[in-house]
Write a structure and sequence with these properties.
Elements (H helix, E strand, L loop, with lengths): L22 E4 L3 E4 L1 E2 L10 H10 L12 H20 L7 E5 L2 H11 L5 E5 L4 H4 L7 E5 L5 H14 L5 E6 L11 H10 L3 E5 L11 H4 L3 E5 L10 E5 L2 H5 L10 E4 L3 E3 L3 H4 L7 H13 L3 H20 L4 E3 L12 E6 L4 H12 L1 E2 L1 E3 L4 H8 L13 E5 L6 H14 L2
Parallel strand pairs: 3-15, 5-6, 5-7, 7-8, 8-9
Antiparallel strand pairs: 1-2, 4-10, 9-10, 11-12, 13-14, 14-17, 16-17
Length: about 425
């Protein structure tokens, strides 16, 4: 990578997050403004999201269950949120938008709704949310982490071609939560179509960084979480084709999922109501929709993120003993996520030192992607003295500054000398 540290910053996005510059304690009794570089785990709240909640709270009431004015307002906000989410991901009007707790919950809902005997093809490089839910009377084909995008497409095609007769589902990530690398979603969708399969996309790490269009990509299902999308209030969603969801038993059994209850229960034919039993997380959904509405100036957001990402990756590459993790090489496109190991240092020790001495927040561990991180790091020989194949991850977003990046680079240089 070429040196880019002297590039001028582009115009900052108008969006701001709650807590920018919040003071945190460091060694010596001082405080410093927090350098949050852990967006991939949970992004901070957008001010626009907080404002939407402030507007919603005075009218907070029951959803779908009340005739009072506050209940009508809250129900309208909740149902309008479906349309906002549908537009945000470019879904078809006929697609279902089911609100869940997060991406893990959404993928488990889809796994619950699969026709029995479905063949599910998934790569071991997936986050656990997309890797683990499928073995419920289905035939799961777990593919090794591919050496290239072309190898990934070929492996998926071969696995689908070899699948027994019956429903087939290809599960892929849009952007890796470990390396940030972008996966060729449209090409995977074409492979799925060629073999009569559907495709489900984990977009949790993509939608905070890039626009996503289900229609243009020809995707059947997409899942993502509010807490990674600057809406940290416990809501996510599964968006996609309604037929499997409509035919499946309700994900949860209870009020709201029913059409009538007597000696026998009749479940709602609406796939959205059918799988949203109980009182929903109204404020989480309002927050999720507010984040979707706020994230519109993608050209500015992407340009600023790419500039910061280049600054970070160039700086890491210049520090002896620091190795960035990558599946498809330095030049492959990625979002603002960088994982790395430090030679001779355990990831938890480094992360703790970054926090205690410099007020920097990063993630350490296996990032809920254990097989993939072990594949990239190895058994500890890649620099983890605890020998368990862990790594560090720095991730960027709205509110990240040059100073945050430079503080991390300076700290790592000091810790490695």
């Amino acid at each position: 990578m070429s040196a880019v540290l002297d590039l001028p910053p582009v115009t900052r996005p108008a969006l701001r997050v709650v807590g920018e510059g919040v003071p945190v304690p460091v060694a010596g009794g001082r405080t410093v403004p927090y350098a949050n570089l852990d967006y991939a785990a949970s992004a901070p709240c957008l001010e626009a999201v907080r404002d939407a909640l402030d507007a919603a709270l005075p009218y907070y009431s029951s959803v779908h269950r009340g005739a009072g004015y506050a209940s009508q307002v809250t129900t309208d906000r909740y149902e309008r949120a479906r349309e906002v989410v549908r537009e945000f991901v470019g879904a078809w009007r006929r697609d279902a938008v089911v609100f869940t707790r997060n991406t893990t919950d959404a993928m488990n809902l889809l796994a619950h709704a699969l026709p029995r005997g479905t063949t599910v093809v998934v790569f071991e490089s997936e986050h656990h949310a997309s890797l683990l839910p499928w073995a419920r009377g289905n035939h799961v084909v777990r593919l090794a982490a591919p050496e290239s995008p072309e190898a990934a497409l070929a492996a998926a095609g071969e696995a689908l071609a070899a699948a027994p007769a019956g429903p087939r589902l290809l599960v892929v990530t849009a952007a890796s939560n470990v390396t940030g690398e972008l996966w060729p979603v449209a090409e995977f969708a074409a492979v799925a179509r060629a073999h009569g399969a559907r495709i489900a996309v984990d977009a949790a790490q993509l939608v905070p960084h890039r626009p996503f269009d289900m229609g243009a990509l020809d995707v059947d299902y997409v899942a993502f979480s509010g807490h990674k999308l600057y809406a940290p209030f416990g809501a996510g969603c599964l968006v996609g084709r309604a037929d499997w969801l409509r035919a499946a038993e309700p994900y949860l059994l209870g009020g709201g999922a029913t059409a009538s209850v007597g000696e026998h229960v009749t479940w709602s034919a609406d796939p959205q109501q059918r799988h949203e039993a109980g009182t929903p997380n109204v404020l989480g959904v309002v927050a999720l929709a507010a984040a979707c509405e706020a994230l519109t100036d993608w050209e500015t957001l992407v340009a600023e993120e790419e500039r910061l990402l280049r600054r970070l990756r160039t700086g890491l590459a210049a520090i002896p003993g620091v190795r960035e993790l990558s599946l498809w090489g330095d030049r492959h496109p990625r979002v603002g996520i960088v994982s790395f190991v430090v030679e001779g240092r355990g990831s938890r020790a480094v992360a703790t030192a970054l926090s205690d001495r410099y007020g920097i927040g990063v993630r350490d561990g296996k990032f809920c992607a254990h097989p993939f991180v072990r594949r990239l790091v190895g058994d500890g020989s890649g620099g983890c003295d605890d020998g368990d194949g862990t790594a560090l991850r720095a991730s960027l977003g709205i509110g990240t500054t040059d100073e945050h990046i430079d503080r991390l680079l300076t700290a790592l240089r000091r810790l490695t000398t």
